[in-house]
Amino acid sequence: MKLDFNFILRNLPTFLEGAVVTLELSALAILCSLVWGLVVVTARTAPSRALALAATGYIELVRNTPVLVQMLFIYFGSAVLGAPLSGFAAGLLAMTLQNGGYMAEIYRAGIEAVSQRQVEAGMALGMRRHEVMSIVVLPQAIRKVVPPFTNQAIVMIKDTSLVSSISVAEMTFHAKLLTDRTAAAYEVFLTLAALYLAINAIVSAALRLLERRVAIPT
Amino acid sequence: MVAVRGVSKWFGAHQVLKDVSLDVAAGEVVAVIGPSGSGKTTLLRCVNLLEDFQQGEIRVDGEAVGYAGAGAARRRLPERVIARTRSQVGMVFQSFNLFPHMTVLKNVMVAPVRVKKMPEAEARASAVRLLERVGLADKLDAYPARLSGGQQQRVAIARALAMQPKVILLDEITSALDPELVGEVLAVIRQLARDGMTMMIVTHEMQFAREVAQKVVFMDGGAMIEQGPPRALFADPRTERLQTFLKRFREGYQL
């Protein structure tokens, strides 16, 4: 078979139009999951048994159901409830709910990796529980979790392709439309894969740089 | 300044502190000695409630530490109150426990600024003064990992002093140090003692205890066995347990 590179070049603007939406959704979803994950891990590690149990239940729920199913549920469910969300909003919400759960577990691993002695040093100086967390533990924990976070960010960027099934016009959505119109499946999906690869390569390189920048001097 | 009254503590069925009482007067240095597992570190950690205790009471400058009421009415004070008490009791740990993500200066400034709400400039000036006092004025911007153990421990002392505590608890602060670094840390403590800082010191350094402490307390098996001025205690131990303990030390150390 023979690839038609001209076809790819001709349709590049369409791909890039989709890429903008992909990047927007990725950035927002990553940002929201970072924040939501912090909320979930706070509950997960709270002294209150009920709160910790609720957070654990939540994490299990979102982790053990496909994010696509969550998207469809939120997208169509919100319409049934009479407050329809846009595909973009439903996708963002589903991705935040799911990845916030993952982020919470990543944060927790980081928090548990900070020695109890650090906690005691903070308490001995008169810090309250939340102050020990925000001044002593989290700054160290977050540095420890940059590598697993990079992983999760890449998974999320790839997962944004799922919102094409709730009519969000991102890269994969445009690609599907193109193949429907032209049947040039090889060209289209190769280009699409190459674009995801490029985005993820840049993001992981940037995060490796960040990892080095925030590393605690030794 | 510190009053310990009938403190008992259990880990499950095992009693680790048995009805311990002792006093530390303002400006006094009290050394707590005893074999490993004698409960001396546990007792020290009760004074700022890093360990809870089930019976008795501890007061720092008249204020109850950790608990209010007695008997069935005894209850743990709210976290806010406990934190405030801790802010008035300095502690230096065996393993330094500096914050590795902060510079030396920040390590010393962070509690005054965040806990005491001291203005940043004032906290900085005071931190610089303290670091000069412990001989580390040239390390303000270094991170802990770049420092020797002795230097880290001196930063930890400055960090504790920065809160202007009423008493400082020193928990075997030279045990994790290479022998050649012990001297520089003890010199700082000696100076603090001369300046009238109230201190409670758990130590294996008998010579040091004898030199800086006005009172030495000997603990064994979770109980306070003997206490008195160092000269008398070391020269004329009344109990067999202290005699045995000191004999073991004399075999290895010059007292």
Structure commentary:
The complex is a heterodimer of chains A (218) and B (255). With 218 residues, chain A is mainly α. Chain A has one domain: MetI-like fold. Chain A has nine helices and no strands. In chain A, helix 1 crosses helix 9 (185-214) and helix 2 (49-63) crosses helix 4. Chain B is α/β, with parallel strands linked by helices. Chain B has helices spanning 40-47, 79-87, 104-114, 120-133, 149-161, 179-194, 206-212, 230-235, 240-252; strands spanning 2-11, 14-24, 29-33, 55-60, 63-64, 67-68, 75-76, 89-92, 167-171, 199-202, 215-220, 223-228. In chain B, strand 11 (215-220) and strand 12 (223-228) form a beta hairpin. The radius of gyration of chain B is 18 Å and the shape is globular. The two termini of chain B are 29 Å apart. The chains are: A mainly alpha (218), B alpha/beta (255). Chain A binds chain B through residues 117-118, 120-121, 123-129, 131, 135-136, 139-140, 143, 216-218, and chain B through 48, 50, 79-80, 83-91, 93, 95, 97-101, 110-111, 114-116, 143, 145-146, 159-160, 163.
List the helices and strands and how they pair.
The complex is a heterodimer of chains A (218) and B (255).
Chain A: H1 5-44, H2 49-63, H3 67-80, H4 87-113, H5 116-124, H6 129-144, H7 146-159, H8 171-182, H9 185-214
Helix pairs in contact in A: 1-2, 1-4, 1-8, 1-9, 2-4, 3-4, 4-6, 4-7, 5-6, 7-9, 8-9
Chain B: E1 2-11, E2 14-24, E3 29-33, H1 40-47, E4 55-60, E5 63-64, E6 67-68, E7 75-76, H2 79-87, E8 89-92, H3 104-114, H4 120-133, H5 149-161, E9 167-171, H6 179-194, E10 199-202, H7 206-212, E11 215-220, E12 223-228, H8 230-235, H9 240-252
Parallel strand pairs in B: 3-10, 3-11, 8-9, 9-10
Antiparallel strand pairs in B: 1-2, 1-4, 4-5, 6-7, 11-12
